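Field reference: sequence -> structure
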Amino acid sequence: MKIRFESKGELLRRWLKFNFVGAMGIGVQLAGVELASAVLHASPAFATVLGVEAAVLHNFLWHEKFTWVDRSRTKCWRKRLAQFLWFNGTTGAISIAGNVLMVLLVRWGGHVPVVAANCVSIAACSIVNFVVNDRVVFRRRRFSSGDFPDMLLDTENSTR
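Structure field:
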């Protein structure tokens, strides 16, 4: 199997699209954190989980239809659900774990407001999430739930 890399221009365009969607997702996350904190009186950690999950749902829809539209052509609801579960399980887990950890560390160390602490953690998680989305969730070949190691490879010429 051969690993296929995008050209620098293609990768840059996709990175810019990813960041555009991410910027909108930041708004969703921060609004969710503020809403959970102010209305539900949630703890900073729980408010962060709610805000991140709202952003994950938002970002999946945008990435599917905008960032990786060339790799998201299935109309089958089962395949889309499987892809969403992979997205939520990877990007969601990275974002929730990273954000909660960073929020607790930043707030504990500097008594920083929860929304500002979320901004720090979003920046820290974004590069990892881009790579995971590009190589795992929205990879080139048709989505299937098996063979995890092959997800990191471009297997469009594979016999599967």
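Note: Helices lie at 8-38, 44-67, 77-110, 114-137.
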